[in-house]
Design brief:
By secondary structure, the protein is mainly beta. The chain has one helix and eleven strands; from the N terminus they run βββββββββαββ. It has one helix at 102-108; strands at 3-7, 10-13, 18-25, 33-39, 46-51, 59-60, 68-73, 78-83, 92-99, 111-112, 116-121. A hairpin with a 4-residue loop joins strand 7 (68-73) and strand 8 (78-83).
Length: 122
């Protein structure tokens, strides 16, 4: 059974930084694409970042380019999202995702975590 569990969310001040973690289990180690999405109630889900198994450079949503970084620790089965220079509009529930391929992660990821709330205060 595949499980993804996010942690690290919370309240952070405008301009601050936060690192989200996503521990995984049941996935073939390293052999899957990963991603982070976010959603605000009443709004569409937004892609934040994604990374294929062999991709050198991850892909980021326009609103987070230069501020967020996705990475993975294959040995510890953990996915990370480093967020810096946070803005009020970054407030959302953040979800980590995994899929056998990058297209799946971008369109309709097979596996999702339960989400973690990030709130940026002014």
């Amino acid at each position: 059974q595949v499980r993804l569990m996010e942690s690290g969310g919370g309240l952070v001040q405008f301009g601050g930084s936060l690192r989200l973690s996503c521990t995984t289990s049941g996935l073939p180690r390293g052999n899957y694409a990963i991603g982070w999405f976010r959603q605000v109630p009443g709004h569409d889900r937004e892609g934040v970042a994604c990374m294929a198994t062999s991709q050198i450079r991850p892909t980021y949503g326009e609103s987070v380019k230069g501020r967020f970084a996705i990475s993975r620790d294959i040995a510890n089965d953990t996915i990370y999202l480093e967020m810096s220079n946070l803005k009020r509009r970054d407030t959302a529930v953040y979800y980590c995702t995994a899929d056998p391929n990058l297209h799946g992660v971008v369109t309709n990821a097979r596996h999702w975590g339960q989400g973690t709330q990030v709130t940026v205060s002014s």
